[in-house]
Design brief:
This protein is α/β, with parallel strands linked by helices. It has a single domain, classed as Rossmann fold, CATH 3.40.50.720. The chain is built from 10 helices and 7 strands. A 7-stranded parallel beta sheet has the order 3-2-1-4-5-6-7, with helices on both faces.
């Protein structure tokens, strides 16, 4: 059931791949709340075909774009503005990928060519999207831009590898561009630091099941699901969050504030106490 929170608002959603994608859930909930949008992903991702089912359900055009290509992004915005006949009100940047993680390359032995691809796809792409939108004056006043982050930007998660640096840069771009776009057009830019979420990308991280369970045990409210994240994004897109900008907002059931939990000690681990014995 929708409440028409986004009635009349238009936007672009980057990164919907299949039903496991957070962007897929965001698209569904935005549509239910009255918003309309263009769906976009890399041409290789579009070949998977699932996105066209989502497009049919949400009456959304699909435009291919490589987020690392300025030419592709300029074409995407030109076609989007032509489709809607006016500026847009929201953007979801749900894009991230690390060749080093995919290939299980140990962090001390990173392939630097892969590292640069990680940064370009997972962080600089947001800057490129915003830069193109800024130059084309594509986003309306009090428009809202959301990107998805993870607490690995601040804390060490061994299997997260170079994505930690990418997310840290991503959050920095949110703050820096948030200032400039706020001054120019009152556009809001925020990152949502989501719980470990069972997505196609998330499951590709080594040890994902273990730290998903760990996070769930640590969080007083449990891990936030993809659908819950989508609903939170709808709130940030709406006029109810008109003065929220340049923030990294933890949407993680309380995990980011916890030190230890009873549930973790009593249910998730069976501790013998030997690790605490003095030598």
């Amino acid at each position: 059931m929708g409440y028409n929170l986004l009635e009349g608002k238009k936007g672009i959603i980057f990164g919907a791949l299949d039903e496991n994608s957070i962007a897929w859930h965001v698209a569904q909930h935005v549509y239910e709340e009255g918003g309309r949008f263009v769906l976009t992903n890399h041409d290789l991702a579009l070949r998977k075909g699932d996105i066209y089912r989502l497009a049919e359900k949400t009456q959304a055009p699909v435009i291919a774009a490589d987020v690392t290509s300025i030419d592709d992004l300029e074409n995407l915005f030109d076609e989007t503005l032509k489709h809607f006949g006016s500026g847009i009100d929201f953007i979801l940047h749900a894009v991230g990928m690390s060749p080093n993680v995919r290939k299980n390359i140990p962090y001390p032995e990173l392939n630097y060519e892969y590292f640069m691809k990680t940064i370009d796809i997972s962080a600089l792409s947001l800057h490129k999207i915003l830069s193109v939108a800024y130059k084309k004056d594509a986003i309306n006043e009090y428009g809202s831009v959301i990107t998805l982050s993870y607490i690995g930007a601040q804390r060490q998660f061994t299997s997260y590898s170079d994505m930690s640096q990418a997310k840290a840069m991503l959050e920095s771009i949110v703050r820096s561009f948030g200032y400039h776009y706020g001054i120019k057009k009152k556009v809001r830019i925020n990152s949502v630091s989501q719980s470990p979420t069972i997505t196609t990308a998330g499951k590709g991280v080594k040890g994902f099941d273990a730290f998903y369970q760990f996070s769930n045990c640590m969080s007083p409210l449990g891990n936030a699901t993809a659908e819950e994240c989508a609903k939170f994004c709808v709130l940030l897109f709406s006029d109810y969050a008109r003065k929220v900008t340049m923030q990294n907002i933890y949407h993680d059931g309380g995990f980011s504030t916890m030190g230890i939990s009873d549930k973790l000690m009593t249910e998730c681990f069976s501790c013998t106490g030997k690790c605490m014995e003095e030598e």
